[in-house]
Amino acid sequence: MVYFHGMKIGINASFIRKSSTGIGQVTVNFLQELFKQKSKHTFILYLEEDLPSDFKLPENFEKRVFLPFWRRDDLVRKIWWERYLLPKKVLADNCDVFFSLYQSATILPKSVQHIMLVHDIIPNVFPEYLNNSRKKLYWELIEQAMIEADKIIANSVRTEKDLIYKLKIEPKKIHVEYLDVDEIYKKEISIQKEGAVLAKYNLSPGYIYNGGGLELRKNTEDVIRAYNFLLEKNRRDHTLPNFPKLVISGKLMPGNSLAFDAEELIKELNLTPEVRLLGFVPQDDLPSLYKNASMFVFPSHYEGFGLPILEAMNQGTPVVTAKKSSLPEVGGDSVLYCDPYNFRDTAMAMKNILTNNELREALKRRGQERAKKFSWEKFTLSFLNIIE
Fold first, then answer.
1. I want to staple 82 with a disulfide (CB 3.0 to 4.6 A). Which of 105, 347, 364, 388 is the partner?
2. Collapsing DSSP states into helix, strand and coil, what is residue 40?
3. How is the beta sheet containing 8-12 ordered, strand by strand?
4. What is the pTM for the complete model shown?
């Protein structure tokens, strides 16, 4: 299909209403970079809720805000919006290209070139996520839509391989393009801001930090067990006179069978005085939490990309992470790796950072340098090249 100047490009930007999520951050940062490109094309944003008041659209951007009469924010509405209402709007607007900013259930006729950004295929790797009939139906629709899409942008080589081997998608239609973090993690933090955040959570610098969610696959259990192992060893050996606290952020949603109950394990191991559970932390506070940590520990079993370790690297925080899935693509040689199925291995990596100042400084420097390789400009220009 050959295009000339002035295409009409539709974008599913619905996650802008959930800007604190990973896909929400991708949506916001991609659009803000796209605004800067002064493109010759016309862009139409398809939304479930109106844009925030401070989100100003350039002249070549339009928006469509619509919902079915079923207004409850659940899978019924999601399927209805993505699978039925959205394609009708895209066709009515005569879009040449449509970009889904996440793996969705949308299928379009071949008159519209459909490009889909796929972040991960977690339900294929962990079937336990499909624990009811609605989730199973929705994922079946997403799989069908990924197979039907004209082109796929995978956010890592790991995701690309999963698409090829688990869904049998043709390699020639997949493009790997790395994401970046939200701009908030790249900005200098004032001493006043850092102090206010530490005071808010009653923290002193130098703690060990774990964040990114309390889903079982995120493996916070490994972090707690590794910390307990190190703490007990330090009580015997007295290697570190002021052993750091462990700080964990993330909210445990009631009734979620796929979430890890960190508080229960902390009580079981008698770690309550040593471990701080912060619950949900707003994004505005996260850069300061990363920056004041002695390290960020993230031994996740599976990530489509791994935004949390890139957030930490931007702040110069040494990282311990799993040598699995996409995480080595992000961390490269600027982080320490551990076996996420062996908490003693995680503990040894943590101990190396705690006891070796030179290593800690090297990881800080290498992490910040590597973080510069990722940019929203690269991602956005790659998208524009793919459609042209």
1. 105
2. coil
3. 61-65, 42-47, 8-12, 97-100, 113-118, 151-154, 174-176
4. 0.93
**Which pair of structure tokens corresponds to residue 261?**
């109950």
Q: 183-371 architecture in CATH?
A: 3-Layer(aba) Sandwich (3.40)
Instruction: Kindly report the CATH class assigned to 8-176.
Output: alpha beta
φ/ψ region of 95 (left if φ > 0, alpha if ψ in -120 to 50, else beta) reads: beta
**Which part of the chain has CATH 3.40.50.2000?**
8-176, 183-371
**Phi, psi of 302, deg, nearest 5:** -160, 130
24, 18 contact by CB (below 8 A): yes
Contact by Cβ (8 Å): 325, 302: yes
**3-state SS class at 269:** coil
Q: Could you tell me the two tokens for 130?
A: 């499909």
Over the stretch 328-356, which tens digit does the pLDDT of each residue have?
999 999 999 999 999 999 999 999 999 99
User: Helix, strand, coil: what percent of the chain each, to 5?
Assistant: 45, 15, 40
Q: Are the C-beta atoms of 387 and 97 separated by less than 8 Å? A: yes
Which residues of the chain have a pLDDT value below 70? Answer: 1-5, 254-255, 257
What is the rounded CA–CA span in Å between residue 221 and residue 227? 10
* Distance between CA atoms of residues 322 and 355, nearest Å: 20
Provide the CB-side half-sphere exposure for 179 (13 A, CA).
35
Question: What is the C-alpha separation between 103 and 86, in angstroms, rounded?
Answer: 14
Q: Which of 142, 139, 119 is nearest to 131 (CA)?
A: 139
The per-residue pLDDT for 20 is 84
